[in-house]
Amino acid sequence: MKFRFIAGAVALALSLAACGTSQPATKTAESADTVLKVGASPVPHAEILNFVKQNLAPAAGLKLEIVEFTDYVQPNVQLDEGQLNANFFQHKPYLDDFNASKGTKLSFVTPVHLEPLGLYSKKITSVSALASGATVALPNDATNLGRALKLLADNGVVKLKDGVGTAATERDVVENPKKLQFKPLEAAQLPRSLEDVDAAVINGNYAIEAGLKPASQALVLEKTEGNPYVNGLVVQAGHEKDANIVTLGKLLQDQKVKDFIKQKYEGSVIPAE
C-alpha cells in the first residue's frame, strides 16, 4: 500500500508539471511579470531607457528589457500583438494617426521629451540660399509630413492653405516661390538623403543618430513653445494603470532623467515639462 501511495504521488506531481501548474512554474511566471519589455528607437529613446534601467529602475524594483527598432511601424505592431509591454519612440499625433489607419488601440501614457524637427543641408548654410528648383526631402508619414511643411511655412519658404496646419500635404502648398521639388522618404532614410538632395527635414532622433547636432546645425529648427509633438511612453489601451507602467512613467519624468537629457543632448532633445 505504501508503494502504491508513493507511486500515485509521483504520477500526480508529473501530471501537474506537465500542465504547467507546479509551484516552480508559478514562481517563474511571477518573476516574468516584473520585467517590462519596451520597444524604442536607438537614439535618444533607448539611451534614455538605459539610463533609467541602470540608475533608477533597480531601486524601484523594476526590470527593463529594451528592444531597439529603426522604423516607426514595428514598435506599434509588436505592441499591439502583445510582443511588447510598452514602447517609447513617438508623439501623440503620430500615434493617433496610426490607431486610425491601422485599427489599433494603443494609448499615450507619459510625456517625456521633445525632439525639434529641423531642416539640414550639406550644400547650403542658410535657408535663404535654397536655389530655384531645389529638391527638399521630407518624412513621408502623414503627421511628420504635415509637420515638416509647417516648418517650411513658418520660415517663409512656402505658404500653406489657411487653417491646414500640421495636417498639410503637398497639395496644400499654395505658394512655392522657389518652385521647390519635394521628395517624401521614410523618416529613417532622411539623413542618408543629404548626399542626394539640396536639403532635408529630419526628425530629431534620426538627426542625432546620424551625428547631426540639431541645436547648432539645423538651418531652421522647430519651436518648442506650444509644440504638441512630445515623445512619450505608449501601451495597449487598458494597461495605462498597470503598476509597472505607472512606475516606469514616473521614472521617465524624474528630475535625474531631465538632467541627463539636458546634459547629454545639449538642447537637441528637450525634457517635457
What does the secondary structure layout of this molecule look like, with pairings?
Blueprint: H1 2-18, H2 23-33, E1 35-40, H3 42-55, H4 57-60, E2 63-68, H5 74-80, E3 86-91, H6 92-102, E4 106-114, E5 118-120, E6 135-139, H7 142-154, E7 159-160, E8 173-175, E9 181-185, H8 190-193, E10 199-202, H9 204-209, H10 214-217, E11 220-221, E12 230-236, H11 243-252, H12 255-265, E13 270-271
Parallel strand pairs: 1-2, 1-3, 6-9, 6-10
Antiparallel strand pairs: 3-12, 4-12, 4-13, 5-10, 5-11, 7-8
- Count all strands and give the number: 13
Model regions low in confidence, pLDDT < 50 over at least 5 residues: 1-33
Task: Give the helices and strands as they follow along the chain.
Answer: HHEHHEHEHEEEHEEEHEHHEEHHE
Structural class designation: alpha/beta
Q: What fraction, in percent, of the residue positions are helical?
A: 40-55%
How far apart lie the N and C ends?
A: 73 Å
How many whole angstroms does the radius of gyration measure? 24 Å
Overall form: globular
The helix tally amounts to: 12
Oligomer: single chain
Strand arrangement across the biggest beta sheet: 2-1-3-12-4-13
Mean pLDDT across the residues is: 89
User: How can the largest sheet be summarized?
Assistant: 6 strands, mixed
Q: What fraction of residues sit in β-strands? A: 15-25%
